[in-house]
Specification:
single chain, mainly alpha, binds fe (ii) ion, about 140 residues, Ferritin, 4 helices
């Protein structure tokens, strides 16, 4: 069979397909990396919680970046964006570590919301000192 003309071998997307998943969240692939199943499972569970918290922290920094106001707007606006970018680097490292352990990294924001330990802030705008306190206390609280 010609692999260039078959649906799976031609490099074309399978449009309108809804197949079964290939790995469920919370399960591990077998990998020859020298770590036992229980160790990898524990690490993936903990890393996914930190990954969820880090994604929430990224979003919190971006929200505060957008909502910043007042006389110190510009410096705080830039600083909060820098912190957000730093979180994205960490998010990627954590997710790829989960994958390298055979797990499934949490990615969908709705799933992230289920796993995070960070309390949801108000949807509206808070005073600048409250936003800054919320950001710094969330960043240092850990999970
Ligand atoms: Fe921006």
């Amino acid at each position: 069979m010609d692999t260039l003309t078959t649906p799976l071998g031609g490099g074309q997307p399978l449009s309108h397909q809804k197949g079964a998943g290939t790995q469920a969240f919370g399960t591990l692939k077998q990998l020859p990396i020298g770590l036992g199943h229980d160790t990898r499972m524990y690490a993936c569970q903990r890393l996914n919680r930190v990954l969820a918290d880090t994604q929430i922290l990224y979003s919190l920094y971006k929200k505060h970046h957008w909502l910043m106001r007042g006389a110190t707007f510009y410096s705080l606006h830039l600083m909060l964006d820098k912190h957000a970018e730093a979180q994205l680097v960490i998010v990627d490292a954590l997710a790829e570590r989960v994958q390298s352990l055979g797990g499934v990294a949490v990615g969908d924001p709705r799933h992230v919301a289920e796993l995070t330990a960070i309390p949801r802030p108000p949807d509206g705008v808070e005073p600048v000192p409250v936003m800054l306190y919320r950001g710094s206390s969330t960043h240092t609280s850990g999970s």
